[in-house]
Design a protein that fits this description.
Blueprint (H helix, E strand, L loop, with lengths): L5 H11 L3 E5 L3 H14 L3 E5 L1 H7 L1 H15 L3 E8 L2 H10 L3 E4 L6 H17 L3 E6 L3 E4 L2 E3 L9 H11 L3 E4 L4 E2 L12 H13 L7 E3 L7 H9 L12 H9 L2 E6 L1 H17 L6 H24 L6
Parallel strand pairs: 1-2, 1-11, 2-3, 3-4, 4-5, 5-8, 6-9, 8-10, 10-11
Antiparallel strand pairs: 6-7
Bound molecules: glyceraldehyde-3-phosphate (G3H), 1,3-dihydroxyacetonephosphate (13P) and zinc ion.
The site of zinc ion (ZN) has 6 residues, from loops.
């Protein structure tokens, strides 16, 4: 068991009709909670690193923590660049030892996205690294990009085939109604499963059988975390995510990676708030960070069992 690439993980996940969770990291407690959950559930894991997380923690600390997690738990963990915005960051992360990266050119026009993605693919493949790219635009907030719902565009199935063929990517992130952040739907939650099915069929017809699809913006915005946050002084009115059964359905289809970050942020905030409210004289960070770590582990174990279906996959 080791620090691995995502390629083999996805091949197994497609066959087994489950998905691997990408959980984003940025500090010690979150890394430990995710790794311990993977160990307890005997599941492979992907730890996602955004460019803001890289800035916050630094590549040496992040890689050091992930390596320590692999050593402590003995499970397969892939470390993956999340939403790499340009060639430079893709190159830098490959230099830090990432075996999996995402180049996100989804905000460019189609031809520009193809061109920039291809450049990143060639570099990644020359270095033995697998690479994900995105087609279609998700609504929501990620890093410095804030996409209003009316500017979101679902992935076009024919374009998806052309994009995969021309770029040579290893996995494709698509837009079918998910979005980043804690406010995903104003009304009823809805995902375009027909579009997912069509994309998969068209890829298959083009000779791209079992091609891994990725779902970003896939936090359930767990009601319990929102409730605890709000109970202890938070203000998260109207927070709403993707229902668990929809995510499970996607995982049983061609979706091999499901990205979750918001649910971990909410879990951490909820249990830090709770601990401090219940222990007003506490000031040892290990108290409130430890409480948050325990709860995040529970959340990740729940995702592995109920959303991803990846328990006992190692
Ligand atoms: O997809 C976006 C992730 O949630 C990353 O967020 O850039 O604030 O770390 P961040
Ligand atoms: P959420 O905001 O739904 O957790 O999505 C995270 C994500 O897509 C990271 O790439
Ligand atoms: Zn994302």
């Amino acid at each position: 068991m080791a620090l691995v690439s995502t390629k083999e993980m996805f091949a197994k996940a497609f066959e087994g009709k489950y998905a691997i969770g990408q959980f984003n990291i940025g500090n010690l407690e979150v890394v430990q909670a995710i790794a311990r959950a993977g160990k307890a559930q005997n599941s492979a894991l992907i730890m996602g690193v955004s460019s803001s997380a890289l800035k916050y923690a630094g590549p040496q600390f992040l890689m050091g923590m992930v390596k320590a997690a692999v050593e402590e738990t003995g499970i397969d963990i892939a470390v993956h660049l999340d939403h790499g915005a340009d060639f430079e960051i893709v190159k830098a992360c490959i230099g830090y030892g990432f075996k999996s990266v995402m180049f996100d050119g989804s905000h460019y026009g189609y031809e520009e996205n193809v061109k920039k993605t291809k450049e990143a693919v060639d570099y990644a493949h020359a270095n033995g690294v697998s690479i994900e790219a995105e087609l279609g635009v998700l609504a929501g907030v990620e890093d410095d990009v804030n996409v209003a719902a009316e500017h979101a565009t679902y992935t076009d199935p024919d374009q998806a085939v052309d994009f995969v063929q021309r770029t040579g990517i290893d996995s494709l992130a698509i837009a079918i109604g998910t979005s980043h952040g804690a406010y995903k739907f104003k009304g009823e939650a809805k995902l375009d499963f027909d579009r997912l099915e069509t994309i998969t069929k068209k890829l298959e017809a083009a000779g791209l059988k079992n091609f891994p699809i990725v779902l970003h913006g896939a936090s359930a915005v767990d009601p319990h975390s929102v409730e605890v946050c709000n109970k202890y002084g938070g203000k998260l009115d109207g927070a709403k995510g993707i229902p668990t059964e929809m995510l499970r359905k996607a995982a049983s289809m061609a979706v091999c990676k499901i990205n979750m970050d918001t649910d971990l942020r909410l879990a951490m905030t909820a249990y830090i708030r709770k601990h401090l409210a219940e222990n007003p004289s506490a000031f040892d960070p290990r108290g409130y960070m430890g409480a948050a770590r325990e709860y995040i582990q529970q959340v990740v174990e729940g995702k592995i069992k109920d959303v991803l279906g990846s328990a006992n996959s190692l």
